[in-house]
Amino acid sequence: MFTALLVMIFLAVLLGLVLGYSAIKFKVDGDPMVARIDAILPQTQCGQCGYPGCKPYATAIAKGEADINQCPPGGDTGAKALAELMGVEFKPLNQEHGVQKPKSVALIDESTCIGCTLCIQACPVDAILGAAKQMHTIIASECTGCELCLPPCPVDCITMEPVLENSQSWKWKYPVYNIQNANGA
């Protein structure tokens, strides 16, 4: 009886290996601190911090290679949230990386657009729709306001328009405790 049980277990394990199953699966997505830092960052992917996007900046912060105050879109509110998470002293936004501006989205003057596609190539979040030699348009719900589409446009047909933040347009991912603190709670 014991031998039959061992044979059945062996066959079950062998079948599992053949079919690609395992009883224990490990999934490691990286450093959980990087994920927590990245969740605080505004996800504009603008590169103003000196890193090519929010995740690389979060990784550098977690490794101690970058200061918490290099993100103009996050501003002082983001730096405060990062300071609290990291257990370090708050430092105001380092203005060498830029200044905090109101949330905005790009707008293309479609009558002026020549369809060069340079803005499409510059957009880190694929918020611009168009084709070569055709007018382009912005998918406003996807635009992070990073302004990376502005410099390559040869006809200056792109402007940044302020966004009134409300419950539908608010994209920043600050922890709840900071929102409460900002409201005086």
How many domains? The number is: 2
Identify the CATH architecture of the largest domain: Orthogonal Bundle
SS element count, helices: 6
CATH homologous superfamily classification of the largest domain: Electron transport complex subunit B, putative Fe-S cluster
Distance between the termini: 68 Å
CATH topology of the largest domain: 3-methyladenine DNA Glycosylase II, Chain A, domain 3
- Provide the gyration radius in Å: 24 Å
**How would you sum up the global shape?**
flat
Uncertain parts? 172-185
Residues in helices, as a percent range: 25-40%
Order of helices and strands: HHHHEHEEEH
Cofactor: [4Fe-4S] cluster
InterPro entries: 4Fe-4S_dom (IPR007202), 4Fe4S_Fe-S-bd (IPR017896), 4Fe4S_Fe_S_CS (IPR017900), Elect_transpt_cplx_RnfB/RsxB (IPR010207), RnfB/RsxB_Proteobac (IPR016463), RnfB_subfamily (IPR050294)
GO molecular function: 4 iron, 4 sulfur cluster binding; electron transfer activity; metal ion binding
Keywords: 4Fe-4S, Cell inner membrane, Cell membrane, Electron transport, Iron, Iron-sulfur, Membrane, Metal-binding, Repeat, Translocase, Transport
Question: How would you characterize this protein structure?
Answer:
By secondary structure, the chain is mostly helical. The protein has 6 helices and 4 strands; from the N terminus they run ααααβαβββα. The protein has 2 domains: 32-99 and 167-182, Electron transport complex subunit B, putative Fe-S cluster (3-methyladenine DNA Glycosylase II, Chain A, domain 3, Orthogonal Bundle); 104-162, 2-Layer Sandwich (Alpha-Beta Plaits), CATH 3.30.70.20. It has helices at 2-19, 32-40, 54-62, 75-86, 118-122, 176-182, and strands at 104-108, 128-129, 137-138, 158-162. The chain has a two-stranded antiparallel sheet. The longest helix is centred in the N-terminal third of the chain and has 18 residues, at 2-19. The radius of gyration is 24 Å and the shape is flat.
